[in-house]
Amino acid sequence: MNTSASAKGSSSFFNFFDSDFTEPQPTQDADLLRHLSFLPGLKEILMLRQVHALEHATVWVLSASKNVQASTRIPSNFQVDNEFLGGLSTDRGFYLYGEVKISDLRRAVTLALHRLTHGEWDLAVHPRCGTNVSVAMLLTAGLAVGMHLLLPRGPIEQLIGLGLAATTATELAPDIGTLAQRYLTTSIPFNLKIENITYTRDLWGRQAYFVQVQWRE
């Protein structure tokens, strides 16, 4: 999950996706699992998407709690991002990196889960998510190949095409990355229950808190 602040209510030409028919339903993942339970790994994928949303929301809540103390002039329609906090999601829970008291983390996770499941769905999306980076790379590569095929093979034309591809990808990636997070890589955690929070090490030996969750119907 690299910006210092993002407007929660910012407008975009992609906002037409945010209509009522896209509202998440509390039973949508449970129903999907019930009907497609024969698919291997489906439950793990559904859990990972829900954990991913909870990870993002927890970082937002922790960032807000830090910055509310530091400034009283932050507009209420802005979400403030603490770049020293980060996370990594798994299908069993998520790692939280950064200087955080475990008591603050417990409160933040509980509040994040409550806010997400009670209508604050924007908390599931974060500008520093790896999804945005992946989208930017794919867009740049795709547009660069397209420009290479469409433009003359001269070095000047190819350089101009590469520049246009990079510029276009930079402009489109934040919005498309947001859509990818909202509809592909995250899901509102209606089925998650917070089980435990421990201070541990991740797979690469880095110290972090691990927020363990369980699936509930």
* Total count of domains: 2
From the helix content, strand content and strand pairing, which structural class follows?
A: alpha+beta
Q: What is the H/E order?
A: EHHEEEHHHEE
How many helices? Answer: 5
Estimate the global geometry from the Cα principal axes: globular
Question: Would you tell me the overall average pLDDT?
Answer: 87
> What proportion strand?
15-25%
Query: What's the total number of strands?
Result: 6
Which strand order spans the largest sheet, edge to edge or round the barrel? Answer: 3-4-6-5
Helical fraction equals: 40-55%
Question: End-to-end distance, in Å?
Answer: 29 Å
Rg, nearest Å: 19 Å
The main β sheet shows up as: 4 strands, antiparallel
Low-confidence stretches: 2-21, 68-77
Summary of the model, kept short:
The protein has five helices and six strands; from the N terminus they run βααβββαααββ.
Describe, in plain words, how this protein is organized in 3D.
The chain is α+β, with helices and mostly antiparallel strands. The chain folds into two domains: 23-125 and 186-217, no CATH class; 129-185, no CATH class. The protein contains five helices and six strands, in the order βααβββαααββ. A four-stranded antiparallel β-sheet has the order 3-4-6-5, covered by helices on one side. Strands 1-2 form a two-stranded antiparallel sheet. The protein is globular, with a radius of gyration of 19 Å.
